[in-house]
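DM from R.C. (forwarded with permission)

"hey, sorry to bug you on a friday — could you get me a structure for this? deadline for the figure draft is monday and I only need the backbone to look sensible"
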Amino acid sequence: MRLTFGTRPSIRRRLTLQLLTSAAVLAVVLFLIVSGFARQIGAESQDRILSASVASILDAVSVASGDVTVDIPYSAFTMLDNANDDRVFYRILQDGAVLTGYDDLPETTPGFATLPYRNETLRVVTATRRLSVDGAPIEIAVTVGQTRDAQAETLQRISRMAVYLGLGFFAASAVLAVLAGQVTAGSLRRLAGSVSRRGPQDLRPVEAEMPSEMQPLVRSLNSLIGRLSTALNRTEDFIAEAAHRVRTPLATVRAHAENTLRRVDKEENRRSLREMIRAIDESSRAAGQLLDHAMVALRADQLELEPADLNALTGELVDRLRPVAELKDMEIRFAQGQTGPVMGDAILIQNAVRNLLDNAIKYAPPETRIEVSISQDGAFARLMIRDQGIGFPQADATPLTGRFARGDNASGVVGSGLGLTIADEVARAHDGHLEMHNNEGGPGACVTLSFPLR
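My reply, with the result:
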C-alpha cells in the first residue's frame, strides 16, 4: 500500500525558514535599538557637557566697580575639547548686547537647540543669570555651541558595531535554526528508518523513541499496521478457503459427469455431457488461476525471500505434471543445470513454473515433446520451457502477459488468459524477467524465466 501526498516543502525547510526569518527580524530590531540608544546617550552626554560649560561661564561673571566682568575659566572650553574636528562657539549678552564672543550666533531662548551655523550643525545651550549693578537689575545670557562631527563619528562607529552584532546574532541564529531543523527532521528520519528497515512480514507496532509531539503519529501508524495485519491474515484465509470451496465441488461435478458419460449411449446426450465436462474444466481452471493470481498479488508485496533450489522446485513440478502430459501421450524431458540457489519465495516460483508447464501441456498437440532445462547466465538462473504447440500468434508476445489476454490462435483451447500474467508478475517481483518467442525453424514456443542468483 502506498500513501501519496501532495508535494510540499519539508518540515526542516519550513522550520529553518521560519527561524531564519525571526532571526533576521530580531537582528534588525537589535540594530535599531542599539543605534537609537547610542544616539540618545551621545546627545545626552553632549548636552550635559554643554550645560556644565555654560554654568562655569555664568559662575565667572561678576560685577566690579559698577562694571560687569567675565573671566572665562579655561575649563569651560577644555571640557568640550573632546575631538579635534569639533569647534566651539560662545557668546555672552548683557541685556541683549554682546559683551564677548561670536556676535553672529543665532539668538536662542534659554535651553537646548540644534540649529545651522556657518554650514555646520550646531548644538547650543543658553542659560541666563540676573545680577545687580548699582542697584539696577541686569540679565546675563550665555550661549555655548559645539559642532556634532565627533558625535556623528561616534554614532557611526557604534552603528557599525551594531551591524556586526546583528550579523553575528543572525549567523548564530542561522546555525541554531539549521541544527533545530535537523533535530526535528531527525526524529522523522528515525521513525522512517525504524519502519523501512523491517522485513515484509514484520508488522509489529513501532516502538521507536519519539518526541511527545510525534506520539499521535506513531499511534496512528501502529493502528494502521494493526489493521493491515488483520486484513492480510483475513485475505490469506479467504483465498485458501475459496480455493478449497471452489475446486472441490467442481471436481466432484466433473467426476459425476464422467461417470454418467460412460453409462449414456445416445450420442446427443454424450455430446451434452462432453460440453458440460469442458465447461467444468474451463470454470475450474479459471477459478484456480484467479485464486493463484490473487495469491501472487498478495505475496508479491511481502515476499518471503529464502534460498531456493530451482532444480529441485522444477523437478518436483515436472514429476507432478508428467501424468497429465502422459494422458495426451506427451513426453516431458527435464535437464538440470549447474546453478546456485536463487533468493525468492518458493511458493510463488512454483506457481509461475506450474502455469508455464500447464500452458505447454495444454497448447501442444498429442504425441509431442516438452523440453525443460535450467542454466546459468551470468548473475541469473534461467528456466527454459520449449514445446511444439501452436506458438504465439505474433512476433511480440508481450501483450499476452496482460490479464485475461489470449492469442487469436487459442480460441479453441480452454484457458483464462492468466498463466503468463502470473509468471510475469512473479518474475518482476523477484527482480527477474520473462522472455517469450516462437521456436526458430519449427512449431512451438519457448518461454524463459530468469531469477537473480543469491
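R.C.: lifesaver. The chain is about 50% helix and 20% strand.
me: no worries. Confidence is low (pLDDT under 50) at residues 1-6.
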